[in-house]
Design a protein that fits this description.
The chain has 13 helices and 12 strands. The chain has 319 residues and is α/β, with parallel strands linked by helices.
């Protein structure tokens, strides 16, 4: 790899007048979650920060530092722009997905060239360190949400909700079984692609189930406020962001032990946690226990705002 050879001759600049950050995403990300992330983080930064949406990462603008919203963008960027290795680089890492093109050896070598690697949860942080990433390069920052967009409501009906696109890792059987075996509860699903689920027709036929399909994001705050108890049954996540959105809406969270959930939820206090292989009957018990919880969930999630996240990133660049 040419970047490996070139990097041997590049020395990191020591700059006391650090000012500019370029937040890097793809052109295709503009209308997707990665685009939203760089726009929000850049807007709250106290430094001179701009979002930069690229096609092929061949010509990054000059900057004192670069923030890569997705780790693979960094690997490609140093191949085509080895000069950035003498600047500050911070990389966001969601969850490992090693491939032939991005093997574990290649990924860890590249990440060790960054100044900081932001891990969204402690499980990923531990996995990367075990794989060879220098521990002092890691920083644990659960991804954020917007407390000004999501507003709280008073829990009073005991309704249950989910928010996700359909997929095997979203544990659809858990969703199906909870709806089927708790007919006294009203269930809401905010999501898309659930028509691909083999039991979709049966699921939507349950009188206690309402599916909000492919709704505009602007409607999410109102939809979350139909929900008192929020369930995230996934078997693998980097986030999941909907948990934070629901918590800011004062929904009581009950989640599997994946992603950042164990980092932001104290079991028995501001939510409940269950094992990823838990039976649905265990989650049913937790749903019933949640009815007696009166804690203000929103207050426990306010620290995870885009503004606070952006300020933490500023500090990493200035350190």
């Amino acid at each position: 790899m040419i970047a490996i050879l070139q990097s041997k001759f590049i020395k990191k600049e020591k700059k006391s007048d650090f000012k500019t950050i370029t937040y890097v995403a793809r052109e295709a990300d503009k209308d997707w979650i990665f685009g939203a992330k760089v726009n929000r983080l850049a807007s709250f930064s106290g430094l001179d920060s701009i979002p930069y949406f690229h096609d092929r990462l061949r010509d990054l603008p000059d900057s004192d530092g670069y923030f890569f919203v997705f780790h693979q963008y960094f690997y490609r960027a140093i191949r085509h722009n080895p000069k950035i290795l003498n600047k500050k680089n911070i990389v966001m890492f969601t969850h490992p997905n090693f491939t032939f093109s991005f093997s574990q050896t290649h990924v860890i070598w590249c990440l060790n060239k960054a100044d900081k690697v932001i891990c969204l949860n402690s499980s990923v942080q531990e996995e990367l360190i075990k794989a060879g990433l220098q521990a002092d390069k890691t920083e644990l920052i659960p991804i954020a949400s917007n407390p000004d967009f999501f507003y709280p409501h008073k829990r009073k009906t005991g309704s249950v909700g989910f928010c996700s696109a359909f997929g095997d890792r979203k544990n659809p059987e858990m969703v199906y079984n909870l709806v089927k075996h708790m007919p006294e509860r009203q269930f809401y699903m905010i999501g898309r692609y659930w028509d691909q689920y083999e039991k979709y027709e049966e699921l939507i036929s349950f009188p206690n189930f309402t599916y909000f399909e492919n709704e505009e994001y602007e409607k999410y705050p109102d939809l979350y406020n139909k929900i008192d108890i929020f369930i995230s049954p996934s078997i693998l996540e980097g986030g999941p962001v909907p948990v934070l959105e629901a918590m800011l809406s004062n929904c009581f969270p009950i989640t599997s032990k994946t992603g950042f959930c164990p980092d932001i939820i104290n079991h028995g206090e501001n939510g409940f946690l269950f094992e990823i292989d838990a039976d649905f009957t265990e989650v049913m018990k937790l749903i019933n226990l949640a009815d007696s919880k009166t804690i203000n969930i929103r207050e426990t999630a306010l620290e995870h705002s885009w503004e606070n996240c952006s300020k933490k990133i500023d500090k990493l660049f200035l350190a």
